[in-house]
Amino acid sequence: MIDVTLQRDAYHEIPFLNAAPGNRGIAVRERLPFLRATVSGLPAGAPLLVAAADLQGRMKEGGTADSLLGCAVADGLPKIQAAAGLPAPETMIGLLAGDFYAEPNATKRGGIGDVNEVWLRMRSKFMAIAGVLGNHDLFGASSCASRLPDDFVDGAVRELAGLRIGGVSGIIGDPARPNRRSADEYAEMLLRVLDQRPDILLLHAAPHIVSGSAGEALIAEWIQATDFDGLVVCGHIRWRERVHRCGRAAVLNVNGAVVTLVPSSQTQASATA
Known about the structure:
This protein has one domain: 4-Layer Sandwich (Purple Acid Phosphatase, chain A, domain 2), CATH 3.60.21. Helices cover 20% and strands 33% of the residues. It contains 5 helices and 19 strands. Helix 1 runs parallel beside helix 2 (116-125) and helix 3 packs parallel to helix 4.
């Protein structure tokens, strides 16, 4: 069974622009935290992992907010990780849990657009990546039902560096809208992935865990019904506490954050070195 211990203090932050609540047509400055966590129970020899979701902002360049926040994260990772005493990203696996699109100039929330460039930049920095799409993401002109790259794990399980990683894109909702599935279709895909017993389950939608932490009760029920004991990485909705248990599974919500997961075996090795 997997356990996650998250450090509360960020080891780095990036300032970025986000659309003000209420779609008032203005951008406000926010800060993206980089957090560190220790994870136990992963297969022996598992590499470090970097997980992120809901990086829905823009970076100000040349007087305008014209680049996606996820691109800036990817480009800055080598220096950020080195300054924190962490290994280089090319020795790690990136986990993308969806919603990396933001409208140009960060003046409107809720847009839907192409996140291909974020995935390309992430892929160029990490040993490997695995990801799902959020309800605001397209890949080119594609939704989650379309053909996408091999590191897209929607409804599939892939093995990367000895880790079995599966996922389900989008949220439960009106299938006529991008990256939404009916409850029945979502359940069928989720159960198909869980039947393959991944070590890590990537979701954009968050399960409902406890009172006060919003999410989908049905997703929590399906995770518990299969006795899944791996790690769930999700986003979509921000929780006050990012780590919870869902039955035997550990759940890490990375909404609006970048979290580096260090296997406990590597933490212990560093302490005794």
